[in-house]
Amino acid sequence: MTDMEQIAQLKQVVDDLLQEAHKQGADNAEAGVSVQTGLSVTVRLGEIETIEHTSDNGLAVTVYFDRRKGSANTTDLRPEAIRESVAAACRIAKHTSEDPAAGLADPELMAREVPNLDLYHPWQLSAEAAMESARECEAAARGLDPRICNSEGATLYTQRSSFIYGNSHGFVGGYPTTRHGLSCAVIAQQDDEMQRDYWYDSSRLPAALADPAEIGREAARRTLARLGGRRLGTRECPVLFRADVAPSLLRSLFGAIRGHAVYRRSTFMLDKVGTQIFPDWVTISEDPLIPRGQASAPFDNEGVATRYRELVAGGVLQGYLLDSYAARKLGLQSTASAGGVRNARIASSGQSFDELLREMDRGLVVTELMGQGSNLVTGDYSRGAAGFWVEGGEIQYPVDEITVAGNLGDMYRQLVAVGSDDAIPGSVKTGSWLFENMTIGGD
Amino acid sequence: MTHSTAIARQMLLDAPGLSEAHLGQVMDRLLSRQVDAADIYFQYSRLESWVLEDGIIKEGNHSIEQGAGLRAISGDKTGFAYTDSLELSRLLDAAGAARAIARAGQHACHAAGPGATAPALYAPLNPLESLNEAEKIELMRRTDAVARAADPRVQQVIVSLVAAHDVILVMDNGGQINGDVRPLVRMNVQVIVEQEGRREQGSAGGGARQALDFFLQQERALGYAREAVRQALVNLEAVAAPAGMLPVVLGPGWPGVLLHEAVGHGLEGDFNRKGTSAFAGRVGEQVASPLCTVVDDGTLPGRRGSLSIDDEGTPSGYNVLIENGILKGYMQDKMNARLMGVAPTGNGRRESYAHLPMPRMTNTYMLAGKHQPGEIISSVRHGLYAVNFGGGQVDITSGKFVFSANEAYLIEDGKVTRPVKGATLIGNGPEVMTRISMVGDDLALDTGVGTCGKEGQSVPVGVGQPTLKIDQLTVGGTAA
Question: Residues A400, A328: one domain?
């Protein structure tokens, strides 16, 4: 089946679903259906370890009866499972409460046209060819240094998906996408100490993936750099979050400005729209319409047209992340945020990573974070960390088994700089973040 | 054949019209080149969830997960394919894709045989139907009312109720067919309290492989409501947590997440076969203080982490991992056990038919010691008493692990004093285990809330421990 035929078939499934929901008495309904197939091949110590043929289907339907909501989903797309799902959603809606904020997104917000964002670049990849790339990647990692003594392997995957979303406003839209990735994790040993680290790349476009051998070498370099880690004494000092761990600081912000957290009053960003939450040089944006972007989408999970948006401008919070439900709860309008932030970016204050090291002079570079210690109700932040100690603007030695702690609200306000070193994989564009002062827990 | 296997055969083979001859055909396809082992895993799963928020029943969801996963193993190589359809033609296609892992060669043989019998650790019931909708809603509303009545500072209450009915059937290349019917229920209460502009949260819940009336028994649901409010109010009073190395006393029950992270993952067979764990090659060595005996026990009736059989058909076990500080063995699935020359331990688990099995924990806990909890606390001059935790994480290669306290107190001169804010604790698993200097007589298991993630797969687990003291552990507060 061609992808266009598949899209047409999924569109039919959504049409049938919406009709079935109306037949069962729903005033409004929305449904999404997706099919995904893929191949994932792992090579370990030069030999094939696993070949996985993936095939993941999903269908989700939500029905509304007088602002009472019911929903269902299924991985089984046979007609009997779809009928069971619609019936279950309708049954549930008889028992949920009437909720004035429930319902589809407003009809005037629906995407009128669906721009082609160039997200579909299938890869006709045989298991043998996948194995060769993975092998090349792992071999480069293992060959870099004799201290690389073991491996968790290298994995190459390719996926293609098609999805369709439709609702009772008559909106129906969908498109095919692809995603490809290569990752490698190796182990280094020195005396009694073992360390592990990894590296990866992912892309919509097979040709845009980094060279397998370079991914392998980067995995090895990162692993070797951890050897000989020391602990630090407990102290307060400046901290530089390297670019590859900095996206977590943006994600905490996004979690805190989510409309659902705001109407529940369960966020430290409550009532902060229009106020200074970062220094005035900070701009944070999302651009869902970037061609080939890893998180690009022409409409959100409710059919609302997406657009470029500044979340923070001049350091001032511009608005929350609202789906239609949170928007109604707060008396605002949807910001096309059902499904999250798409292609976030924080603008750099201009310094390279090395310039940031010099600016910090003496302090901690964090290159790994462990655990979930971000409390978004209070902003309290405490996480396990590893990285490097810096003196005289230069890296001195690796450190591990320490904690970094502060409060996210204070950290954001006191952000010193964001680096220009934003060439990291993934959908979030950020350089390294420098903070004036945090608490380090150690010896 | 067990009662559960009979039910599973009816739902997963008879209903879609699959006969034993059909299964033989699929298995032949999987085995038609050189493979050491193969299995076919069928799953029928229904999950229902409800959410109460703002005092109203806001959402309900019904979820279907159904399909078959087919696996062929040659040495340490695995071929895997799955399908959401139980039609014979789709199963044969998947078998053809999965077997491609093995090079041409000999033909492994198989013969149909009866499944192993393991005692059922839970009733083969459907928890979605164990209360009617009105009863489910009444349970949630009463829970909400108790939370709101508990204190005027309660601003927001979110109650969730989940019931899952999971039926699995697994056939191995010996022709053995084993089935299991796995009920699982879970309830949670989250509250937000507000006082003079300061907001804090509290959360409590529980679960089991039982019917939903589990939450009505002993007023469990109402207990979760009171506990969530209590925690949130404690947090309103919390001061900055200390930073640095301190003696840490962990309370009983859920703080056993320590064991899950500090030793549990590091003792899973796959990491040890590959030599990537800090515990690799150390069986027979002292890896913890002599006060520590740690088991992984999938045989506790009705517990969230328990399994009558694992996802490869092996009966789950009571496996001693560490005895008086000595490492006794690892947790195994069939493949890693075969490659390491030991017996499977009933720890072969998978999130669903669409995921490969691997060694996973069930209920992991430390056996009771001799000390009274009170004397453990009074032995500390200046330290931390941590009684509730969020999640944790471990790097099994370096042994570094973290877990995040969300209810903790200072110990000053042998007495529990002020509550402190949440903080991450970090240590090195093998090192921290040797610093356990007192173990209480108050072993408790968690209330049935644990979910463990590994390589992107989530499975329900349990943890437990008595009160215990770690002489030195790094605490990640802000008060340096």
Answer: yes
